[in-house]
Amino acid sequence: MKTFQAYLTKSLKVYSCIHCRAHLAVHDDLISKSFQGSQGRAYLFNNVVNVSCGVAEERVLLTGLHAVADIYCGCCKKTLGWKYEHAYESSQKYKEGKYVIELTHMIKDNGWDVIAA
Fold first, then answer.
1. Which of 109, 102, 100 is nearest to 21 (CA)?
2. What pTM, to 2 d.p., does this model score?
């Protein structure tokens, strides 16, 4: 059995690392499904758990210049996506402090098949 730094409540809809099944985020923290990563579609989250951040660097992304830091799974150390540290354009400021995880690195766990009463 794996021990996680943070284990999200089983009753919540949870996104997990596809490589080791460590919990990453809850569905309620999902902001947008309209992001693009280097390996395809990606989701923007308000909060994540069980990740570590690399050093921030400036990158030109689809929406302009940003300071971003790669994020890694805290358990298996695989690269998952990035964290927005700074947005240079005012229209992109809402991304600051938010996390992007590429779909190729996560799966849905727990309560996804439960029908709300």
1. 109
2. 0.86
